[in-house]
DNA sequence: TCCTAGCCTGGACTTTGTCCAAGTCAAGAA
DNA sequence: TTCTTGACTTGGACAAAGTCCAGGCTAGGA
């Protein structure tokens, strides 16, 4: 279901490794965090590493479980705090596709929507054509200042259908 | 967090409709439930009554609170069970707009989307133009059999902006 | 009126998320 | 390099939302 990320490197090796495509995004993230005056702790580094990749939509608990593999003493509270902070500064996106646990999407700097499998829950990032906001006529806005539209497409993935 | 917002007048005043319309919808629902072989208990009747109306998006707890006013001994478990059953047979819709408690929307037989105030949480039913599904090109479907698209518009309501 | 499958109840339990006091440490200053 | 300090982390308690279950109740058919 969840895309298994093969980039399981140690915390230390992380910033020293070659600039592979997936890593660029992460270095950018860590640099941006430092630029905001964040202290770069091992915990924050690990949370950022765990969230690296495309089509990554982990719950806080999943992030914690993967973080523990690299940094066994990291606490649940720290994972929640770090995720919350990253969301509040717009570095990652909170996704609520099922009314259960929130999921966290590191792909915050490229506008996209989500395609969810009704069978297994797999989520893919997708880019529909046009601007979904444009489909809402003024008469249907009830005086709201509408600024965003989130679309969740649903269906069965190849494995479930 | 729930609406301090005065733009949510009473449910009834909104579309200036006649009371008859409302009641018809409810009778229909109860009739449909009976038609499915449901035993019509006082508890189910009360849950259906509480959910009646336009732009109604209550949490399970809110449904329970209102149900208790009419039937003090109704239990939380019964409310959850009844809501779950109504959702599973398609008579009401589950809405997850904020990653907190699910909300329940009785307007299941008219296709619509939701407009949510980022300030106070108020939710309105809206009808965008066109079919949002059509905006997702085959190349972006990853082999999924896509069957539905849920759109959540966000912005500030007149009172919050 | 009686019977019984289906429904309801209260409470225990799980999952998800928040809060806090006390200890730890990253990074700038000396 | 060492020191200092305020930001960060920890573990545990707590809260909110939802699920499960044994036992009692009842709608509706016989």
From TrEMBL, chains A, B:
Task: List where this protein forms a coiled coil.
Answer: none
Q: How is the cofactor bound?
A: Binds 1 zinc ion per subunit.
InterPro entries according to UniProt: FUR, Fur_C, WH-like_DNA-bd_sf, WH_DNA-bd_sf
A single Gene Ontology MF term assigned here is: zinc ion binding
Q: Does the keyword Ligase apply?
A: no
Q: Which cofactor does it need?
A: Zn(2+)
Q: Which UniProt keywords apply?
A: DNA-binding, Metal-binding, Repressor, Transcription, Transcription regulation, Zinc
Residues engaged in binding Zn(2+): 117, 120, 157, 160
Against SUPFAM superfamilies, the record matches this protein to: Winged helix' DNA-binding domain (SSF46785)
| Protein name per UniProt | Fur family transcriptional regulator, ferric uptake regulator
**Single GO biological process annotation from the record:** negative regulation of DNA-templated transcription
Q: Does the keyword Transcription apply?
A: yes
Spell out the family assignment given in the record's similarity comment: Belongs to the Fur family.
Superkingdom of this protein's organism: Bacteria
Entries under Pfam families matching the protein: FUR (PF01475)
